[in-house]
Each structure stands twice: as C-alpha cells, then as structure tokens.
Amino acid sequence: MNRRAWLLFLLVAVLWGIPYFLIKLAIDDLSPVFVVAGRGLIAALVLLPVAAVRGTLGALRARLGVVSVLAVVHIIGPFLLITYGEQHITSSLTGLLIAVEPVVIALLMSGTEPLTRVRTIGLVLGFAGVAVLVGLDVSGDRLGLLGAGMVLLAAVSYAVATMLVQRRAADVPPETLAGGTTAITAIVLAPFAIMTWPTEPVHAKAWTSLALLGVLCTAVALLAFYRLIALAGSTRAGLVTYLNPVVAVFLGVIFLNEPLRWSTGAGFALVIAGCWLSTRPVPSRAAEPETEAAVPAVAH
Q1: Is residue 291 part of a domain?
Q2: What's the 3-state SS for 205-270?
Q3: 285 in a domain, yes or no?
Q4: Distance from C-alpha of 179 to C-alpha of 174, rounded to nearest angstrom
Q5: What range defines the domain where residue 98 resides?
Q6: How many domains does the structure of the chain reveal?
Q7: Which pTM does this prediction carry?
Q8: Residue of 137 and 39 predicted with greater confidence
Q9: 299 within domain boundaries
Q10: Is 284 inside a domain boundary?
C-alpha cells in the first residue's frame, strides 16, 4: 500500500475503534435508542449533501428496497444491540467481541468458499477466543452475558450486511448507500427517540460524544473506508478490523478505568489468530486471475 492508503487505514482504525468509548459516555445521559437515532441523523446530514453534490442521489430511488434492508441489518440492528449491550459490559470487551466478525463472515461464506483445514482451525480459534473473553470476563454475571450476547449478535448482523452489499448493492455509490441507510435509520427511530427524550439535564460530554459518533465514526469513517478499498483493495482494507479493538481497549482502560485482565489479552490473541487464519484466501486450482468482490464498510 502507498502512503495515502496507510494514512487512510490508520484513520479508519481509529475512527472505528473509538465508538465504543463514545457510546459509553453518551449513554450516561441519553437512552440507547436516542443515541442511535441521533448518530444516524447526524451522519445522514453529512452524507446526503455529499451525494447530492456528486449527483448520485438518484441511485436511491432505484435501489430503495435493498437500501432499506441494509439499514436494518447494517445500522439499526447492530447499533442498537451494541449500544444496549454496553449498558452491561465494558467498552473494551465490546470492541474485542466485534473483532470476531471476519470469523462469522468466513463461516457464512463456507458454501461458496471451501473450509480448508487452515480456515477450520481459524474458526475454532476465533470462537475459542470469544469463549475466553465471555467466560472469564463476565462469568456468573447474567446481565454481562446478555450484553456480550447482544454484541456478538451485532457482529453476526454486520457479517450478513457485508455479504448483502457484496451481492446486491455493490453498484450503489458509497456516499449514497451510507447516506440512505443512515437517513432511514433516523426516520425509523425518530418516534422512539422522541419518546425517550431526556428529561434530566444532559452533560456536555454526552452531546459531544453523540456528535462525534455521527460525524466522525459514521459519516467520515464510511467515506474513508470506501476510498481505502479503492486504493488498497478489499482484502487489505478489511484488515482494519484487527486494529479496532486495540484502540477500544486502550481508550477504555485509560479514560474509563476499565480493568485489563490476562483473559483480555489471551482472548484477543485467539480472536485475531482465528480471524487471520479463517480469512486467508483459498488457493485457486485454476490458473485464472483473482478478482476481489467489494467489501462494504461496517459502521461501528
């Protein structure tokens, strides 16, 4: 990768590593559904004008069906699951559990990409890492197990969304796709956000966190990731998933005083090893040039 690609890679890694920290700050004063609706609205207000300037908004009308489905499985579902889940587990553990997403994708794609011995070992290691993280970090805590389960379900939802974009929406311009899904998120959740409008004073840190989630962690991160794919290819761009948890753990430990246990390091190592092995390309028997399907941005 060239210098510009590396800079984009690091930018996306940071922008998708800090949402868990910001969510933790926002839900101190705001309801989870309010946070998700606000994040979607802010991102849409940034992305839709970009799409309008580029003249790509018309693509939404023709692909409204698939964009609506993506809004549910790519943003509404996982955003709510993660935000509610963080009421019961640390932001560090949340970031680590989301890192299992490449393992889930490899498992879901096993029908079209054969499960070699190496990939199977990777899947086993990845799920073993999750077992270590969940079993030791929230052992005996029912609410903790519930929160971890929500985050893992969000990772599955992200994986399904990835496959859906690859197969159904790869031709939709990124700013239009991201703008459409975030706008639909805001519209769908607006009534629930109004119902949970804060009645107590909201601290500035909560509003600031929400603004950063919308502008940086959603709108800017999505556009940067799509540009990274164009410069470096989807395989290299997808490796950003491995670096996000490092940022999440660092912020949680330093600024939120979250515990750093030995199980955190052990589980993270297993998850990363599993992700790396399970996502290794399968050697082609035919001497044909390899082609890469576009991998969409996964909004954290």
Answers
A1: no
A2: HHHHHHHHHHHHHHHHHHHHHHHHHHHHCHHHHHCHHHHHHHHHHHHHHHHCCCCCCHHHHHHHHH
A3: no
A4: 8
A5: 3-278
A6: 1
A7: 0.81
A8: 39
A9: no
A10: no
